């Protein structure tokens, strides 16, 4: 028995996490962090915009920088002119490839996501 989805139900989302071996992962959080570093020019600002401490953001950047052949983020320390951060060519490429793969998976899996959503119980029936 299938039910029609309630119009009040939020649209489904698909979150893609790629695991390369034991410790190297690239997922929506790291991709969002890269994107926000690109947009803000700052690791601290990117982290704040994600409700993440600077230390946590820096640790994620360091993890990504050491996982790939080339660093994804370059930064300079603060000073009179202030510091900053930016995506390297490799960082731009990694982010672009991840976002392209996200779009591809979302498009290819749209019918299956819709089918799963149709099988969900109406939110007003849940208690």
Defining traits:
single chain; 127 residues; mainly alpha; Arc Repressor Mutant, subunit A; two-stranded antiparallel ribbon; 5 helices; 50% helix; 11% strand
Account of the 3D structure:
This is Winged helix-turn-helix domain-containing protein. It is built from 5 helices and 4 strands; from the N terminus they run E-E-H-H-H-E-E-H-H. By secondary structure, the protein is mainly alpha-helical. The protein has a single domain (26-120), classed as Arc Repressor Mutant, subunit A (Orthogonal Bundle). The strands form 2 sheets. The chain has a two-stranded antiparallel ribbon. The chain has a two-stranded antiparallel ribbon with strand order 3-4. Helix 1 crosses helix 2 (43-49), helix 1 (28-40) packs across helix 4 and helix 2 (43-49) crosses helix 3. The model is unreliable at 1-5 (pLDDT under 50).
Count of strand segments? 4
- Category by helix and strand content: mainly alpha
CATH topology assignment:
Arc Repressor Mutant, subunit A
CATH architecture: Orthogonal Bundle
- Biggest beta sheet attributes: 2 strands, antiparallel
Any low-confidence stretches, pLDDT <50, length ≥5?
1-5
